[in-house]
Amino acid sequence: MRGYSIWALARNALTGHAGWPRAWRSPRPRERYEAVIVGAGGHGLATAYYLARRHGMRNVLVVDKGWIGGGNTGRNTVTIRANYLREESIRFHAEGLRMWREMSGELGFNVMFSERGQIDLIQTWAKLRDVKRRQVLMRLAGVPFEIVSPEAAKARVPILDLDGAKRFPVLAATWHPSAGVARHDAVAWGYARAADALGVDIVQGCEVTAVRREGGRVTGVETAMGFVVAPKVALAVSAHASVLAQTAGVRLPIETVPLQAFVSEPLKPMLDCVVNCPGQVYLSQSDKGELVIGGGADGVPSYVQRGDFATIERVVTSLAELFPVLGRVRMLRQWAGAIDLCYDTSPIVSKAPVDGLYLDVGWGSGGFKAIPAGGAAFAALIANDMPGPEVAPFALDRFATGRPLYETAGASNRD
Ligand SMILES: Cc1cc2nc3c(=O)[nH]c(=O)nc-3n(C[C@H](O)[C@H](O)[C@H](O)COP(=O)(O)OP(=O)(O)OC[C@H]3O[C@@H](n4cnc5c(N)ncnc54)[C@H](O)[C@@H]3O)c2cc1C
C-alpha cells in the first residue's frame, strides 16, 4: 500500500469516515426510466452494468427491497465451475469462467477470484455413468475435465479418508482444474460501483409490489416509493420470481426451496481446491481459514432463510464420514437462502409472454458462477429484445414446447 493511502486510512478512521467518498450514490427513484431491473443481487447489478457499458442504456433503475447483495448473492458458497452435462450449459459457463478471470480488471475492484480447481467424489454407479457422459461433452466443448482414481483425489485432498466402512465408498473422482471461488460481496459491490459510475440509479430498501401492464405491454412497476414508468422491466429476484411475475399475469414453473450453508471456525490451510460430493456435502477453505460448507437443498418448499435439521444432519454426517479429521471442528455460522428452482434445474433467461417483461430467474443453487455471463446475456436480451444464441435454449417457452433442459449438474441436489 502506498504511503498516502495509509495516511488517508488513518485520517478517515480518526474522523469517523466523514470524508470517505461513497462507492455508489443513494438516489430517490425518478418518475421514468428506459428500463427497471428488480433485484440488486449479482444478476441484477451485472445486467445493469452491461446494459450501460455495452449497450449505452444508462437511464436504468436497479431497485431492491433489501440491500445490495443481501439475497442469495451474499449467502452463497461461491463455487464457480463449468462441469455441466448439457452442451448448452457447458458452453455458457465456460464463457463465464473466461469472464471471471477478467472481472477484477474490468470492474477495477478485487473480487478475489481464485482458480483453484474442483474435485468431485463419485459415490454411486449412477453418478459414475453420468460423469462419463459429462466427460465426453466437456471434451467436445474444450473444457478440461477428467475422471481420476480415488487415490488421485486423495493426493489432491489429503484430509479425505478412503479407509473404513462407509455408507457410500468413493468409487472414482473427477478433476475440473478451471473451477474456483471468488468473494461474493466483492462481486456485488464491484458491479454496483461500476454501474453507478456509468449513471445507473441503484435504490435499496424499496420493495416492488407489482409489475403493471396494459393489455399485452408492461408499463412500469409499483414500488414502496411510488409508481415508476418503464417500457422495459427485468426480473432478477431469485426466490421471489414467481410471486412478482404473477402480478403481471405470468405463471412460472419455479419452486422456492431453502438451501443452507455452514462456516467453520478458522483453521490452518488444509484444502486448496473445492471438494464436492454430489448431493451430500461440498467444501472449500476461505482465505480466512474457515471451511465454507454446503449440501443439497431442503426437501420442503419454503421462503424461510433458516433451513431444516434433516439437511444439517445429512451434511454433517457426510462431512464426518469422508473427512473424519474434521469431526471435532466447531461450526461458527449456519444460514439458508431461498433458491428458485425450475424442474429441469436449468435457468430461465427469456422474454416473458408480456411485451417489455424479461426474466433472469431459476438459477437455483448455481447462479453465483453465472453472474458475469448471465448479466451480459440478459443485458443483450433486454437491449435487443431478442436472446443471443448463448441463452436461447434457456427460454421460458421450453416448458410449453417440450424442450426442457434436464441437467445432472444443475441447480439442486436432484442428481
Ligand atoms: C446457501 C447457498 C449456496 C449457494 N452456493 C452457490 C455456489 O457455490 N455456486 C453458485 O454458482 N451458486 C450458488 N448459490 C446460488 C446463487 O447464490 C444464486 O443463484 C445467485 O446468487 C442468484 O443471484 P441473483 O442476483 O439472481 O439473486 P439474489 O442475489 O437472490 O438477488 C435477488 C434480489 O432481489 C431482491 N428482491 C426480491 N423480491 C423483490 C421485490 N419484490 N422488490 C425488490 N427487490 C426484490 C432481493 O432482496 C435480492 O436482493 C447458492 C445459494 C445459496 C442460498
Regarding CATH, which class of the domain at 115-179 and 255-340? Alpha Beta
- The structural class is alpha/beta
Identify every distinct bound molecule in the structure, by name, code or SMILES. Answer: flavin-adenine dinucleotide
Strand order of the largest sheet: 5-6-4-14-15-16-13-17
Order of helices and strands: HEHEEHEHEHEEHEEEEEHEEEEHEEEH
In what range is the share of β-strand residues? 15-25%
- Helical residue percent band: 25-40%
**Terminus-to-terminus distance:** 47 Å
Largest sheet: 8 strands, mixed
The value of Rg in angstroms is 22 Å
| Tally of DSSP helical segments | 9
Describe the structure.
The protein is α/β, with parallel strands linked by helices and about 425 residues long. It has a domain at about 115-180 and about 255-340: D-Amino Acid Oxidase, subunit A, domain 2 (D-Amino Acid Oxidase, Chain A, domain 2), CATH 3.30.9. About 30% of the residues lie in helices and about 25% in strands. The chain is built from 9 helices and 19 strands. The protein has helices at about 5-15, 40-55, 85-105, 125-140, 150-155, 185-195, 240-245, 310-320, 370-385; strands at about 35-40, 60-65, 80, 120, 145-150, 170-175, 180, 200-205, 210-215, 215-225, 225-230, 230-235, 255-265, 275, 280-285, 290-295, 330-340, 350, 355-360. An 8-stranded mixed sheet has the order 5-6-4-14-15-16-13-17. Strand 1, helix 2 (about 40-55) and strand 2 (about 60-65) form a beta-alpha-beta unit. Helix 2 crosses helix 9, helix 3 (about 85-105) crosses helix 4 and helix 3 (about 85-105) crosses helix 9 (about 370-385). The radius of gyration is 22 Å and the shape is globular. It starts with a helix and ends in a 31-residue tail after the last helix. Flavin-adenine dinucleotide binds near residues 64, 65, 72, 208 and 369.
